[in-house]
Each structure stands twice: as structure tokens, then as C-alpha cells.
Amino acid sequence: MRMPALGLVAGAALAASAGCGTRALTANTSGGGGTGVISFDAGPGTGGAFQPTRDVDILFMIDNTAGVLVQHNLLNNFPTFTTALRSLTGGLPNLHIAVITSDLGAGDGSVAGCTADGGDAGIFHYTARGTCTSTNLDPGATFISDVDGVKNYTGNIDDVFTCIASVGNSGCGFEQPLASVARALGADGRPMPAENQGFLRPDALLFIVLLTDEDDCSVPPGSALFDTTSNVNLASQLGPATNFRCNEFGHLCNGAKPPRLAPTGDVNDLVSLDGCVSAEGAGMLTPLATLRAQLRSLKPFPDQQILVAAIAAPSAPYTVEWRNPYGNDTGPWPVIDHSCMGSDGTFAAPAVRLNEFATGFGANGQTSNICVDSFAPILSSFAAQLAAHIPGLQQ
Q1: What is the pLDDT of residues 182-216, one digit of tens each?
Q2: How confident is the chain (395 residues) per 10-residue block, as mean pLDDT?
């Protein structure tokens, strides 16, 4: 999470950033190796039986406004994930691994760090980043592939991932991680980016990992939420151009929006809220039900083939506080306080929508606290989750 980044809009400095359940197994595997057909209730309109494979497509969505400590935690502990996968029966699954960011741009480009042309547009990151000078991917490769021992890279898979996943922290402060996933996979009704073609395999398990220190602020096409022309201060319809808008128009706490105005007009006011959930149709963000349905449309057996994991902040505590405005205004501006803080100084805002999105996948969704010293146990749990969903990969 970046501290408020300032952009000049109409002479005023504005902050870009503050800071389906799973159906049950209905038939046993056939064959001693556990590679037989498993029959599931696939739901209306889907015939046949689910046939598990060793193919796993993994998409990492990494917030590119998050602090470097968060990204280092992932990159330093990624070998824990691959080591655990190698220890599974039969060794490493047939992997596709890709990386995207939360940056889809915002508004007309007047908000600092946010372009008007769609930002990273859900396109896979496949060039050398951070301190590495070469990804070691084969020419033309845009994601990692390691299938039946045939690799599209040289060297170590952990080094390749570290190189393409060092996404930096200069992205748009209006993060849209869920819309970015939908865009990357062509689930939003538009064609998948050309660079991402070939990643999704129809029969493969799809595992989506969301790493972010702020909540989702995905909006539908044409949304006015990021307007900075007539909406620049407390009295305007949308309030100041900070990402408190994502809370005010994306969450409901016990049925009400988080308050924009300080109760006494004082910068030291605090308001603690509970019962906070996604506003769904009552807000301006894309409903989670829509995003979940888009993702599920990618697979013939979504209840068996899609796993979602969010590494983010807990949804509570949820506290609104106020800070002095950037420029002249009638009162202090609202911000959401962090709901967790790590011993290394990592902090993150309540991820109400992200946590709700993940848990909406029932047993196929999991949430983890981003404010921990090491992601190693989390990444180990990811490998265990994969093992539990693909017969023949059990430890």
C-alpha cells in the first residue's frame, strides 16, 4: 500500500491512493493409481463427468502498489511452493504459471500513477524485472510452462518466477485485482489479450492467487467512480479523489455506507464499523457475483476446476479516520485505517471484497493474512490444496 500519492487535477492535489459452494464427490475413483474418472454433479447445462488431470494453470495477481516487503515475502518464499509440489506423488504437476498486476488504469489519466488507457490491461508480465537481467524464458514465451518435463525456460523455475513477478510499486492506486483477472483470462466478454493466449487449458485446474494490501476496486466499463473533474472535494457527489471512494461506494457496514464526513468535523475523529460486506448492486463497483460468474464461465466444471486464494488483510477491524485535506476543503478527508500490521512494518487495509470473493468459492476458496513474517506456511498450504483437488498428487 502506498501512502497517498498526489496528482494535480485542476490545480488541486488529489490522492490516488490512501495508503457457489463446492459440490460433493459422488463417485469413487477407479484404478489403483487414483487417476480414474470422478463423477460430480456438474450443475444445470453441464453433462458428462469431471475428468481430473495433472494440469494446473496458476495465475498470480500481484498488487503493484504494494510495499516491497510484501513482494519480497512472496518471492523469497516461492521456492517453498515449488518444493512442496515436487514432493507430491508423481512429482511436479504440469504447470502453467503467469503473473499480472492490479493496474487497469483509472479515469482520464489525471490521477497520479493511473493511466487512461487501461494500465497493464491484464497482460501477462514476462520481461525481466527488478534486479534480474534475463527471465530465461524461451523467446516468445509469456508465461512459465513445465509440462511432462518439457520446459519453456532454462535454469530454475523459482528464478524465472522471481524475475517476472518483481512488478514494482508504481502502479495505479485504484487497484482492480478482480477485474484484472477477468481481463487477463478473457472472462469479461472481450477476447483474451494476445500475449495471454495458450495459458488456459480446458481440462486444467485453474488456481488464482490474489496478493494485495488493499481491497478490490473493480468497476464496470464507463464507470464515473474515478472522475476528477467535478468530483474533487467533500461536497461533490463522489467526494475527494482518494480511494476511500472504493469503500464508500463498494462496502456496506450494517447496511450503511462508511461515512465520508467526520462526526465532529475534527481530524482526530474515529468511527469503528462492523458487519462490512460488498455493496453489490447497491454500490458502484462490479458486483462480486458478476465477477465470480465470469470466472466460473471459463470452465466446464467450475466447482471442481477453480481454486481462489487471497493473501490480503482481514476484513475487520474496520475503522474510518480522517486526515487534513490536500488543498482547501470544508473539512478533513476520510481514510480507512489498516486492519493488520506485521512485525516488519507491513500494513494493509480491510480486504472486504477480496475475502468475500474468495470465500464465495466455498471449500475451493481460502484467505490468508498478508501481515505475517513469512508466506512460507501459506504457500505450503497452496500446494496442499492443489494436492487435495487432483487425484494422484496427494503427498
Answers
A1: 999 999 999 999 999 999 999 999 999 999 999 99
A2: 36 35 28 31 55 94 90 96 91 95 93 92 93 94 96 97 93 96 97 97 96 97 93 96 96 98 97 98 96 97 96 98 94 97 94 98 96 96 90 55
Inter-CA distances, 321 with 50, 253, 327, Å:
49, 15, 18
Q: What is the pLDDT of residues 289-308, one digit of tens each?
A: 999 999 999 999 999 999 99
Task: Tell me, letter by letter, the H, E, C secondary structure of the chain.
Answer: CCCCCEEEECCEEEECCCCCCCCCECCCCCCCCCCCCECECCCCCCCCCECCCCEEEEEEEECCCCCHHHHHHHHHHHHHHHHHHHCCCCCCCEEEEEEEECCCCCCCCCCCCCCCCCCCCCCCCCCCCCCCCCCCECCCCCCEEEECCEECECCCHHHHHHHHCCCCCCCCCCCCHHHHHHHHCCCCCCCCCHHHCCCCCCCCEEEEEEECCCCCCCCCCCCCCCCCCCCCCCCCCCCCCCCHHHHHCCEEECCECCCCCCCCCCCCCEEEECCEEECHHHCCCCCHHHHHHHHHCCCCCHHHHEEEEEEEECCCCEEEEEECCCCCCCCCEEEECCCEECCCCCEECECHHHHHHHHCCHHHEEEEECCCCCCHHHHHHHHHHHHHHCCCCCC
pLDDT of residue 68: 83
**What is the C-alpha to C-alpha distance for residues 351 and 59, in angstroms, rounded to an integer?**
19
